[in-house]
Amino acid sequence: xxxARDRAEMIGLQAVAWLAANDELLPVFQxxxxxxxxxxxxxxxxxxxxxxxxxxxxxDDAWVVAFCDEQSxxxxxxxxxxxxxxxxxxxxxx
Length: 94
Prior knowledge:
66% of the residues lie in helices and 0% in strands. The protein is mostly helical. The protein has one domain (5-84). α1 packs across α6. The protein is globular and about 30 Å long. InterPro entries: DUF3572.
Protein backbone atom coordinates (compact mmCIF):
# COMPACT_ATOMS: atom_id res chain seq x y z
CA UNK A 1 0.00 0.00 0.00
CA UNK A 2 1.45 3.35 -1.06
CA UNK A 3 1.82 6.22 1.36
CA ALA A 4 -0.32 9.31 1.02
CA ARG A 5 1.50 12.38 -0.25
CA ASP A 6 1.11 14.26 3.06
CA ARG A 7 2.55 11.28 4.98
CA ALA A 8 5.47 11.13 2.53
CA GLU A 9 6.15 14.83 3.10
CA MET A 10 6.06 14.29 6.86
CA ILE A 11 8.66 11.52 6.56
CA GLY A 12 10.70 13.81 4.30
CA LEU A 13 10.53 16.57 6.89
CA GLN A 14 11.60 14.14 9.61
CA ALA A 15 14.52 13.00 7.42
CA VAL A 16 15.73 16.57 6.87
CA ALA A 17 15.54 17.31 10.61
CA TRP A 18 17.24 14.01 11.48
CA LEU A 19 20.07 14.64 9.03
CA ALA A 20 20.54 18.21 10.23
CA ALA A 21 21.01 16.91 13.78
CA ASN A 22 23.44 14.15 12.74
CA ASP A 23 26.92 15.59 13.27
CA GLU A 24 28.63 12.69 11.48
CA LEU A 25 26.39 12.34 8.45
CA LEU A 26 25.48 15.98 7.77
CA PRO A 27 28.98 16.91 6.52
CA VAL A 28 28.93 13.90 4.19
CA PHE A 29 25.63 15.08 2.70
CA GLN A 30 26.86 18.66 2.42
CA UNK A 31 30.09 17.54 0.77
CA UNK A 32 28.25 15.34 -1.70
CA UNK A 33 25.56 17.88 -2.59
CA UNK A 34 27.02 21.28 -1.83
CA UNK A 35 24.01 22.04 0.39
CA UNK A 36 24.61 24.72 3.02
CA UNK A 37 22.97 25.32 6.39
CA UNK A 38 20.82 27.95 4.67
CA UNK A 39 19.71 25.34 2.12
CA UNK A 40 18.52 23.20 5.01
CA UNK A 41 16.51 26.04 6.50
CA UNK A 42 14.96 26.93 3.16
CA UNK A 43 14.46 23.33 2.08
CA UNK A 44 12.90 22.06 5.28
CA UNK A 45 9.36 22.15 3.88
CA UNK A 46 10.35 21.75 0.21
CA UNK A 47 9.34 18.30 -1.11
CA UNK A 48 12.10 18.43 -3.74
CA UNK A 49 14.78 19.00 -1.07
CA UNK A 50 13.19 16.34 1.13
CA UNK A 51 13.44 13.95 -1.80
CA UNK A 52 17.14 14.68 -2.18
CA UNK A 53 17.67 13.90 1.51
CA UNK A 54 15.74 10.64 1.15
CA UNK A 55 17.80 9.76 -1.95
CA UNK A 56 20.94 10.30 0.12
CA UNK A 57 19.74 8.20 3.07
CA UNK A 58 18.65 5.41 0.74
CA UNK A 59 22.23 5.03 -0.50
CA ASP A 60 23.23 3.11 2.64
CA ASP A 61 21.26 0.47 4.49
CA ALA A 62 22.84 1.50 7.80
CA TRP A 63 21.50 5.05 7.34
CA VAL A 64 18.03 3.72 6.51
CA VAL A 65 18.04 1.53 9.61
CA ALA A 66 19.33 4.32 11.88
CA PHE A 67 16.75 6.82 10.66
CA CYS A 68 13.81 4.41 10.63
CA ASP A 69 14.66 2.97 14.05
CA GLU A 70 14.84 6.43 15.58
CA GLN A 71 11.55 7.48 13.94
CA SER A 72 9.80 4.14 14.61
CA UNK A 73 9.18 3.59 10.89
CA UNK A 74 9.14 0.36 8.94
CA UNK A 75 12.24 0.24 6.74
CA UNK A 76 10.25 0.13 3.51
CA UNK A 77 8.43 3.37 4.34
CA UNK A 78 11.50 5.41 3.42
CA UNK A 79 11.41 4.12 -0.16
CA UNK A 80 7.63 4.51 -0.30
CA UNK A 81 7.94 8.12 0.87
CA UNK A 82 10.62 8.79 -1.74
CA UNK A 83 8.38 7.43 -4.48
CA UNK A 84 5.62 9.89 -3.54
CA UNK A 85 7.82 13.02 -3.58
CA UNK A 86 8.82 14.93 -6.74
CA UNK A 87 11.45 13.06 -8.75
CA UNK A 88 10.73 9.77 -7.05
CA UNK A 89 8.86 8.21 -9.94
CA UNK A 90 10.28 4.94 -11.16
CA UNK A 91 11.93 5.36 -14.55
CA UNK A 92 10.90 2.93 -17.26
CA UNK A 93 13.53 2.67 -19.97
CA UNK A 94 11.48 0.61 -22.39
